[in-house]
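Morning, I've got a small favour to ask if you have a moment. It would help a lot if you went through both lines with me. I owe you a coffee for this, so here goes:
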Amino acid sequence: MDRSKSVTRTSVGVGQDTWRNAWERGTRLFEDLRKRLLRPANPEIEERELCYDRIWEQMLLTGATGHRSDLKRPNVLVLQMAKVASTSIKSALNKRKINALQCHGLSAARQEHDLARLRRADVTAKLVKRRLNQHLRYVCLHMLVRWYETYHVRHGRKLKVITLTRDPVDRFASNFMQHRSTVLPKIVAWQRERLGEEEAAPIDELQAVHDLVIELASVIVAGRPSTGSKGCRACEKLARERWPEHFIVEDQINEWLRPLTWFETEIEQVFGLDILAPDALRERGWAEAHTDWAEILVLRFEDLARLAPEIGRFLNLSELMLPRRNVTGNKHGAHETRAAIQAALATPIGQVCAQELRKSRYARACGYPLPGGGLAAPGGPNASRASNEAGRASAA
């Protein structure tokens, strides 16, 4: 009897000690946490981190990134004009544990243009899924760039930017194939009105593409985009005046001319660097420039296989392999569509259009056309006659 009571008292004593020890540990933990929370904070650091976290949250929501945080990895912005192997570069960098963030434009001009396009385009599910989501994603990346401009480094690293150039004549065919399924019905509608056909009349799609390229070429030759932004705007204005009910004409003019002013609006205006000014890009196919918050590498698309080691050097990566991604030539109807575009560029007006594009500051700074390459080699037969015809059309 006495022994059992003694055992019971001993058990109760052990339980009390265990409970008391747990309470003391919890109290110490709470006090430590209270001290940490009440410790004087650096308001500047607190705002910097909070701002970055909020931007990253929005990037996650819009699909700009798939990670809930940057995982302390380097951030590399693959900023380019589209159809210059950016998907391949992004894929290669992601495999090397780098946050590769892809974007076609960040400037205020690009955002305003995209918003205007959203307002004017037909409301469709595809528009919302692609164009609207893309616009929101780019706005988030624009804020990330502004964050770096304000705070300069993240985890001790500047923002790295990779961008590429491409011959403006060749790029059009590739970019057209990327959006072929979306734009083709609109081109057919344009062709039907141009020919005065009934709504149900059958239309040869490849012929419609050929004829649209001819029309675009005539607008480009008349508007003279080689003179710069003013000439590009003149082309867009002329396209609107000729075809006010068919936005597809102005839209394709804008897509074709995008390389000519892209570096001015997306690199010079955003980062404050005229990366086309040095001779290095024209002579060796790549150039590099730095600010106190960003490092930028520009590469010529046509030399990308040869220049892959330069990307590795820029990012301190060894043996960087670039996989083939989003190859236009593999898409449905690519061969026939490209042939139709090339046939249009082989006409006199197409030849002069190619000349006009390749005498722009952009093309000359990049070294285009490259020897032995490119669609619609300049100076073809009847080029002078086509130029005179375009001049008379412009004057009229």
Q: What stands out?
A: The two ends are 121 Å apart (CA to CA). Residues 46-395 form one domain. The chain is about 65% helix and 5% strand.
